[in-house]
Amino acid sequence: MTSLQPEHRTTIDDLLAKALTRNRYTAYDIAAAEARLRSRQAARHRPPRQRTADAAPTHTEWTPPDDERTPDADRAWWDLNAVCLLVLFGPDADGQLAEFIAGQYADKTGALVFACLLHLADDSSGARFWWRFAAGVGHQLAEYCLFLDHAHSGEFHDADYWRRQLVRHHFEPVYMCGDRHTAPLLNPPCMDQVHPHITRQQHPEIGSVPLPQPALVHQLRHLTTLL
After folding, report:
1. 3-26 residue pLDDT tens
2. Is 8 inside a domain boundary?
3. Helix 93-102 vs helix 108-120: crossing angle, to nearest 10
4. Which bin fits 67, alpha (ψ -120 to 50), beta or left (φ > 0)?
5. Is 27 helix (H, G, I), strand (E, B) or coil?
6. Helices 156-168 & 140-152, crossing angle to 10 degrees?
7. Residues 6 or more apart in contact with residue 192 via CB below 8 angstroms
8. Quick one: 163 exposed, middle or buried, by C-beta within 10 A (0-12, 13-18, 19+)?
9. Model confidence at 49, in pLDDT bands (50, 70, 90)?
10. CA distances to 27, 75, 95, 112 from 35, in Å
11. DSSP state string for 38-78
């Protein structure tokens, strides 16, 4: 009688061998990876005002969102400050903030202005909230601010999300922000005058939400003469 058994019977060892995951990291530089993690951790917890003692940035171009490489944390911080200051020095920033307040916080451009004020006043969580609001209704400059903010904080997964949004929208930093050289420098003590004109409303799901008061419009006009 002819045997019906296959010439080569698959054993459990054969199956386990096929199931083994290939080692894709035989040439992985562990020391370099640890250095990157330490750098990201330091960037995430470095107080923004501490950076003003550093030398002025040497780069002359905006951080490009179409570059898939990991953004430089320090460069992203300098560029985020520059964007915020250019927004506040815009020709109608005070009017946009006034419309934002009068319209019960529903205007995306006014939300961007307020978020930039919050960022420069060291309220990073409040700034992110209003940048996300503005980005959610289509403001590309708010998307760029979020890209830079997450890159500075070492949150590169989130930074990459906003980078892809910017690429999809064909965002051009020079077109939207202007010349990188034209941004004024930050004068941190001046930003202390912002806080008395901001209140906080507690939302049951979102938490504490910063809201501008009408007097902040006049304060913004005053700030732009001092910064």
Report:
1. 555 555 666 666 666 655 555 556
2. no
3. 110
4. beta
5. coil
6. 160
7. 121
8. buried
9. very low
10. 16, 18, 46, 34
11. HHHHHHHHS-GGGGGGSPPP---SPPPTT--SPPPHHHHHH
Q: How many domains does the chain have?
A: 1
Collapsed DSSP state (helix, strand, coil) of residue 144:
helix
Torsional class of 154: left (φ above 0), alpha (ψ -120 to 50), beta (otherwise): left
Instruction: For residue 212, give the amino acid letter.
Output: P
| Domain containing residue 214 | 73-227
Tens of pLDDT, residues 90-111? 889 999 999 999 999 999 999 9
- Here the tokens at position 220 are 């913004």
Locate tokens 């002359």: which residue? 60
Does residue 162 form part of some domain? yes
In one-letter notation, the amino acid at residue 1 is: M
Task: Look up residue 44 and give its two tokens.
Answer: 């995430």
Tokens representing 213?
Answer: 């008061």
Distance CA 134, CA 149 (A): 15
Q: Does residue 68 form part of some domain?
A: no
